[in-house]
Amino acid sequence: MNLNFSHKELQFQDEVRQFLAENLPTNIIEGTANNGSVFVEKDIALEWQAILVKKGWAVPQWPLEHGGTDWTPTQKYIFSKECYHAGAPMLIPLGLLMLAPVIMAFGSDQQKAEYLPKILSGEHYWCQGYSEPGAGSDLASLKLKAESDGDHYIVNGSKIWTTHAHLADHIFCLVRTDSSGKPQHGISFLLIDMAAPGVIVKPIITMAGDHEVNQVFFDNVRVPVSNRIGEENKGWSYAKYLLEFERGGGFNSDRIRHELNHLRQLIADAKTNDPQFDRHGDIERQVARVEIDLKALEITELRILSSVSGGSTPGPESSIMKLTATHLEQSINEIAVDVLGYDGFVMDPIPKGNPVRANYRNAIVPRYLNNRAASIFGGSQEIQRNIIAKMVLGL
Ligand SMILES: Cc1cc2nc3c(=O)[nH]c(=O)nc-3n(C[C@H](O)[C@H](O)[C@H](O)COP(=O)(O)OP(=O)(O)OC[C@H]3O[C@@H](n4cnc5c(N)ncnc54)[C@H](O)[C@@H]3O)c2cc1C
């Protein structure tokens, strides 16, 4: 395992740094720092996406033929690291990094030509319709019904916790096309236009005051059979393929280090204002604990990078990364709220559309509240531990 970058890789790092210095606008940096939600504002994400598309760097993970890059895994790692370091936002992955790989692997030529350019340009903004009331961790028990009617399906039922459904123009859905066999059989993967008659989106307001997730109802929605990805009743294998990208898609340590730097600044400000602040060093000890765990995550990521560069896939390590990253982010959020103290009570209600807040300080409490959900979305912490117990520890 060689953890040092080569001369060529260091040159690439310089090229990325220069591009970011010249092309990452201040409003995007501020919007990212002040964001209290899982994803940054749609407008900010799309503005940054357009800049990256122009450069050809929006989706390094995609193959060159569809507008991606031919970068090595190490170059992709360097790019991601430098973007976070410069304060750039994560692009919203729902279409770009979750649906697109499924279309590339299992979609028809017509679907590839129709959807991939629109996902890349941002013309199509997607949401993910997997979970249902009663089908989350146990996803295979989903019930959203799609009945065949000539060259259409008639879809009835609902999806829940659908992030950004109120902003999306399309949804990719797992639907039940057959109930006769094992639950994993009889699931199909459908692409649905949110403007289709019978699609109704109802907001779910989180305890952070955000409108981020929704319940989506389908009332006799007609969907062309040509919108189905792959074969009927084979959707479970496409769904699992997508989840590999949702859970294992990306490195987190630099995003977390960026947050830790904000926290350090917050602590420094508190000390300037009050020389007695943290006089027993409790906060410093907690920060040191985070620093140690973050170093361990960084090394784990480099180890995974090293094996991916050698041709293997991340495997169950992505569960370890999700667990650790969530724990670290939530720890940083908790310490930041402690540092704020009574000031944490002064949280303005968040106006509709989550406009950019005035400064990072105002995002601390919303971020703390919002990030509790990281223990659940993308597969809960308990489910990740089950995977580690089975696949790593052989229990
Ligand atoms: C903020 C947020 C955004 C989301 N966005 C989306 C989205 O865009 N699209 C989408 O489809 N879904 C989305 N989800 C849904 C998410 O994937 C599910 O909430 C998650 O899979 C858990 O399912 P559940 O809520 O039904 O809880 P359940 O599966 O009912 O789990 C309840 C509790 O039981 C535990 N548990 C369940 N099974 C086991 C087991 N076998 N062993 C040990 N413990 C277990 C869980 O860990 C959890 O603590 C989102 C969720 C949140 C919170």
Bound molecules: flavin-adenine dinucleotide
Question: Which CATH class of the largest domain applies here?
Answer: Mainly Alpha
Q: Based on DSSP secondary structure assignment, what is the total number of beta strands?
A: 8
Q: Give the termini distance in whole angstroms.
A: 28 Å
Mean pLDDT: 89
Low-confidence blocks of residues: 349-358
* CATH third-level topology of the largest domain: Butyryl-CoA Dehydrogenase, subunit A, domain 3
Number of helices: 12
What's the structural domain tally?
3
The radius of gyration over CA amounts to 22 Å
Largest sheet: 4 strands, mixed
Strand adjacency order, main sheet: 1-4-5-8
Would you give an account of this structure?
- This protein is of the alpha+beta class and 395 residues long.
- 47% of the residues lie in helices and 14% in strands.
- The chain has 12 helices and 8 strands.
- The strands form 2 sheets. A 4-stranded mixed sheet has the order 1-4-5-8. Strands 2-3-7-6 form a 4-stranded antiparallel sheet, with no helix packed on it.
- A hairpin with a 5-residue loop joins strand 6 (199-205) and strand 7.
- The two termini are 28 Å apart.
- Mean pLDDT is 89; it is low at 349-358.
